[in-house]
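Lab notebook, page 48
Experiment: co-folding of the full assembly
Goal: obtain a model of how the components sit together before planning crosslinking
Operator: M.T.
Materials (sequences as entered):
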Amino acid sequence: MTTTTVMTKPHRTIWQRWNWLLWVVVIGALYYWTINGLKFTGLQESAGAVSRSIVDGLVHPQWSYVYDGSGEDLVSLILQTLAIAFLGTIVSAVISVPFAFWAARGTHERFFLRSGSGKVVLTLIRTFPEIVLAIMFIKAVGPGSYAGVLAVSIHSIGMLGKLFSEAIENMDRGSEEAITSAGGRSGQVFALATVPTIMPEFFSYTLYRFEIAVRSASILGMVGAGGIGTPMIFAIQTRNWPKVGIILLGIVIMVLLIDSLSEQLRKRLI
Amino acid sequence: MTYPEIPRRSWVQRWHVKGIGGTVVLLVLLVASSQMTGVDVGMFFSNFGQFMNLLVRMSHPAWDYTTVIIQPLLETIQMAILGTTIGAAFAIPFAVLSASNLIHSRLLRNVTRLFLDLVRTLPDLLLAAIFVAIFGIGSTAGVVTLAIFSFGMVSKLFYEVIETIDMGPLEALESVGASKVTIIWYAVLPQILNQFISYFLYTLEINVRASTVLGYLGAGGIGVFLQRSLNEFNYSQTAVIILATLVVVLVIDGISNHLRRVLL
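Observation: model returned without errors.
Model output:
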């Protein structure tokens, strides 16, 4: 007499078998709400004509705007945009360092009160819209690129502080222990072990943030904080599409150049 | 008795040429850019009173304004969801086309990637300004902006995921003569689905943040009210809007972070 063993399927509860249905219902309801809630009435009759003139302007950019020596041309404003991004990033990198040590979780800490509060502050800074910061600084220092620099340097703290603090948390503690075991004081440990270990990563993150700052510096001008954004928004508002075309071209080339340059540098650092 | 020879250092190392040169370049760039941007530290502090005045006025939020902004806040979330979905849907074919393990034609891959790189260079507000000119003021412009913005981002994240998959199941199916579509459906999709959803949620988080300011240029959502309050110098309303945006962003981040942790 032979006994046959039947392979039974692993038992799944009803919940496990049917919970995909719940997700389908939830996601379906979410999209139903989304599509019904939005009013797509914005489409104008002139949309086709406007798109055609935009494409026409992009194909025939106003080359005379590239450089005319007035200081208000494309090249000088692109340089100004880069200057805003550069200065803002450097200032923010310096301010971020104390924030990073504040928010980094220590090795011997039991309650994460200090690092936790630091992380909350950094999150708040990160979520505060950069455009609003720029408008606030315009009230303080007047319209122009100075307000842009201030906005970039405050806003970037949120992200740089977070990246720096994670770098500190994940750093190799070996050299610190070596200096301590050789009798180094805490100041010496910091200067001889912590800083040299962490520096390349800090530089790399700062460069990465610079790439982002270049993009945001190019739009901060739309609210009056200097750089290429100001002529851009005027050109869009006056429907001067050839000028929009050349500015767009300038921004694309600038961003591509900065991205590849920064990538090269970052590859060498780490 | 002979001493071992002390290793010679080249003069580049001995005089710290790289370190000093780098510092000098950095300083020159700093001075040049602070001149170009007209930075004046003194001016900030002499106008500090005005800045503090603004902060003081913002520190008294007009709480009754909250009821007005709930609807536009929901609209902002709706814009972000729809924009991200459209962008991600368009991103999938482009991600497949630029993944080096699925597409063997180098030319096709490089052309696709160059196109995606170009799309990614455009900042979101700039796109919003152009689409407001095309579609008129309203949430349509916002949805299209977010769709294009997330298309550029998602397609890059997606093709990087596709490139990291395990090729074993693909080769197994290929060896029994499965078609390209079958391979993608049974070998590629199960490996990448969770990461796709995770990146989709991550993009949604970024889009919720972005969509809160798009309205500043007329692209719908809470940004329209932000711009109105700022133009009317009604900073107590601005404060409510910023706080409400903060809450929405944190809630969406929390949900999305939780879902992503469950998925991965």
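Interpretation: Chain A touches chain B through 65 residues (CB under 8 Å).
Next step: discuss with group before ordering constructs.
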